[in-house]
Specification:
712 residues, alpha/beta, Rossmann fold, Spore Coat Polysaccharide Biosynthesis Protein SpsA, Chain A, nine-stranded mixed beta sheet, eight-stranded mixed beta sheet, 25 helices, globular, Glyco_trans_2-like, Nucleotide-diphossugar_trans, glycosyltransferase activity
Amino acid sequence: MNYWLLTTEYPPFHGGGISTYCYHTACMLAKQQIAITTFVPDDNVSDYKIMNTPEGNRIIHFNTNRSKTADYLGYTARLSYEFASIVQHIIQQEGKPDIIEAQDYLGIAYYLLHFKHLLYPAVKDIPVVITLHSPAFLYLEYNRVPTYRFPDFHTGEMEKEAIKMADWLISPTEYLIEAIQPYVDISGRKKVVIRNPYIVPDHKPAPAIDRNKIIYYGKLSPQKGSFELLSYFKKLWDSGFTHPLHVIGGTDIVFHPEQLTMGQIAQKKYEKYISNGLLRLHGKIKPSAIESELHSAHVIVVPSIVDNLPYVVIEAMALGKVVLASVQGGQREMIDHGVSGFLFDHTIAGDFEEKLQLVLSLPDEKIAAIGHAAKEKVAALYDPAVITRQKLPLLNEIIQSKHTATSFPFLYQNEFKPVTCNGELLSVVIPYYNMGKYIMECVQSVKAATYSPLEILIINDGSTEPESLAVLKQLEQTSGIKVFHKPNEGLADTRNYGAQKATGDWLAFLDADDMVAPDYYEKALQVLKHYPNVFFVGSFVQYFGDTNRKWATYTPQPPYTLVHNPVNSSGLVYKKGAFLEAGLNDKKVDYGLEDYESVVHLISKGYNGVVLPEFLFLYRVRGDSMIRKITREKLLYSYKYIAEKHSPYYTTFATQINNLLNANGPGFLFDNPSFAVTVVTNPENNSWLFRKLKALVKKNKTLKKIALSLKK
């Protein structure tokens, strides 16, 4: 078996449980003579570097900007794109693996899974398994991070979509499957609980415990239950409890609501208890000292309010220590209460204090018996030999039963009315108004398309320039091109007119000054023909003309699509029946947002679309274009009109829309959710002098014209 593992962490790049999991998994698989390759981001290399480890793992370190994506993709989006890029590059060099496994955290498999489901040959038939560890959309919520603020919102959406698109989900606990379900519906996904392998290291003989020594080992963070733990101990200390709490681990996690580190908060709020020695913040200690510190503990407390598989519990139990852990996490599946450790419930008042007093009262022989049972529990659940017997048959089953999905796995899709597409002909509709300067380049790009058969329909919307009319006469004599003339009615009506005249079952729009890459239509039609639940296809956008900037577009999904257009909506490829049913452009937003409204209308009716993550659409930027002349007032009117027209659909996502706008500002002020945005509002000057000047301008026609031109 040729097994590829995608991760952000692998020794010596330790970040936590993911790193531990990947190392132990690599050792387990290598022992079974499985060829394992692990892909790890590493900006210390300029491109990529391959090395082998003593445990038999081949590591591919790659630069997170090797494809030069930093200008148009924020870090987590770029990281995911580079994972997909390096995987496809190594496939070109060596051939395909049998299976790929990736972590959920940061959505690193998002673009790889998009390439797979968009039928890119290198990866379309490779099974991809997501192992659930610690999705940011779940953990950030508990750490009170503003999860709707960019780029964290987009990272969470990437994680959810990757989970939805994976062939299989593997979770080390039932708890995490239950915790994820409210955020992303995985009820119909193939999933299984397989514990993480853990190789128990050789430990030194355990010394005698220090009676009443209580240790919290781990980073101080809200998600780890640090606030609750400290409040419990404050209550105990105020009631005469004399035993200190030892906190071993980092204290530099930022608590976002206060914009302070957890250490700063603890030192400020619990200064009295620190000064009298009851709260002892040891900070990070050397790895070589951890075992002796834990060995000396009477009890190790794990008070997480949400957790998957805290390795501190495994490590402590493997040392034969008594662990007192919350039931709010996967740790409840690791401990048999009263036998191999103890559990308490945050939702029961006084439960922690009661269970702690119980543990502290245990005689030495009982502590030793629980420690022995804890060691046996770790061996029974996490021994690599046990995990191998569970995981290898599943992997072989996944490899043997691999198939290409017949339905695209969207996060959200409404029920839709099926449309019929039997023919092969693609109709490319080009709206035309005084575009004689650019139309030849546009037409040549369509004629260079690798897809056939296709027809080109140029819809002349009442052009007036002699040069543009002369070019049209020339095009009318060109084979494969139909030219239609109509009175000037605007872009919306012109697109709709062209759609009605199209004879193909497949439809594409292309503005007369834009162009397409040769393989755009071929790749788009491949997807449209394969998936009955995909109705339009777009791509990344390469600007040209006045700028050479790039725009990474996104598969249109709510709620983001309801606050900003995420796709190259002026150059999409459709199933024509879907466009005629729900995509016709609305002239009431014919300021440049008529194609955006069309996308909203389509997805509201279940006619979802996807984006090819390549620069296949070329958008000309010129100062005199319609979209460049759009004013703030036109934008405000258009956004209001679109939201009100599709009010029932917007209502479904009202809370998310409200949170997005509060976190990032008006939707027309941003266009890339993978980057952070900062919105500043400046109240209008209301001084006496300004009011007088404003009144004067209103009365003077010349000054009024000047003021309006400046306002644009």
